[in-house]
Design brief:
Layout (H helix, E strand, L loop, with lengths): L1 E5 L7 H11 L4 E7 L18 E5 L2 E4 L3 H12 L6 E8 L11 H11 L4 E6 L10 H17 L6 E6 L10 E3 L10 E7 L5 E7 L11 H6 L3 E6 L6 H10 L3
Parallel strand pairs: 1-2, 1-5, 2-4, 5-6, 6-7, 8-11
Antiparallel strand pairs: 3-4, 7-11, 9-10
C-alpha cells in the first residue's frame, strides 16, 4: 500500500513525525508532501495568485510553498509516479472538532484527497489543557485505528476525522464513532497589541471555554477521554430549507 502523508502544521512539525510512524506501521511505501510553513486555518484554500515552489529533502519527502490542498495536488500531479492508495493528514497539534472542520487545513488535506477519489483520513491530537502534547497517544493507537478503518471501509465521498483526547495512551477511555458537534460558546477572539513603533496589530486567540455537548458528538467523546471517529462529507445543502425557500421565490 502506498501512503501519502501531509499536514497543515508544516514539514518540521512534531505531529508529522507521529503520522509517519503510524504510516510506517502499515506500509513501507510512505511519501511525505507537507507545507514548507505552518498553514493552520487554511481550510481548502488553493494557491492561485502566486507560484508554487517545491523543495525536496530526500527521495520521498517534499515541502510545498502552499496549503495542504496544494500539497495533495502537487503530490499526485507532479511528485509521485503513481497515485497513493491512502492519504493521512495530521497529526494536527490541537483538536479538530465541531465547527473546526470547516477551517482546518488538516481536514482540508483529507478532503482534497477524497475529491481525487483517494481514501483519506485526518488525525488530530486534542490540547485541552495546553500542557505538553501527548504524542505517544496517536503513536500508540493510530495504526490500529487506521488498519481497522481500512478493513471496514467507508463511502468514497466521506473523509474520516479522527481525534485523540488529551490523555496518555493507557488512560484512553475507549473509541467512539461520533457525529460532528456544535459548540454553545464562541471561543475565537482578537487581541490588540502594540508594536515597537507604536503601531497596532492583532492576534487571534481562543478562550478555552468548554461547551456542554450532548452524548454522541465528537466534542463529548474528547471531553470524556475517548478517541472520536467522525465520518464527514461535503454535502452542505440543508435539505429542510429547500422547500420553504422555493415557495418564497415562486412567481
Amino acid at each position: 500500500m502506498r501512503i501519502l502523508c501531509t499536514n497543515d502544521d508544516g514539514i518540521y512539525a512534531r505531529g508529522l513525525t507521529a503520522l509517519e510512524k503510524i504510516a510506517r506501521e502499515i506500509s513501507d511505501d510512505v511519501w511525505v508532501v507537507a507545507p514548507q510553513e505552518e498553514q493552520s486555518g487554511a481550510a481548502r484554500a488553493l494557491t492561485l495568485a502566486h507560484p508554487i515552489r517545491l523543495r525536496q529533502y530526500d527521495e520521498r519527502r517534499f515541502a510545498v510553498s502552499g496549503t495542504p490542498s496544494d500539497c495533495v495536488v502537487m503530490a499526485i500531479d507532479k511528485i509521485m509516479d503513481a497515485k497513493p492508495d491512502l492519504i493521512l493528514s495530521g497529526v494536527n497539534n490541537g483538536q479538530n472538532l465541531a465547527e473546526d472542520v470547516t477551517v482546518s487545513g488538516t481536514i482540508a488535506g483529507a478532503f482534497q484527497g477524497m475529491s481525487l477519489r483517494i481514501p483519506s483520513i485526518a488525525l488530530s491530537l486534542a490540547r485541552l489543557d495546553r500542557a505538553k502534547a501527548k504524542w505517544e497517544t496517536p503513536e500508540t493507537h493510530g495504526a490500529k485505528i487506521v488498519k481497522t478503518l481500512l478493513k471496514t471501509g467507508w463511502p468514497s465521498d466521506v473523509v474520516i476525522n479522527v481525534n485523540f483526547p488529551d490523555r496518555t495512551p493507557e488512560n484512553i477511555a475507549g473509541i467512539e464513532v461520533t457525529r460532528q458537534g456544535h459548540r454553545d460558546a464562541y471561543q475565537l477572539f482578537a487581541e490588540e497589541r502594540k508594536d515597537l513603533r507604536g503601531g497596532f496589530y492583532y492576534w487571534y486567540g481562543y478562550t478555552g471555554e468548554l461547551s456542554d455537548p450532548p452524548q454522541g458528538t465528537d466534542l463529548r467523546a474528547i471531553y470524556d477521554g475517548r478517541i472520536s471517529i467522525t465520518p464527514l462529507h461535503l454535502a452542505l445543502t440543508h435539505e429542510d430549507a429547500i422547500l420553504p425557500l422555493s415557495e418564497a421565490f415562486k412567481e
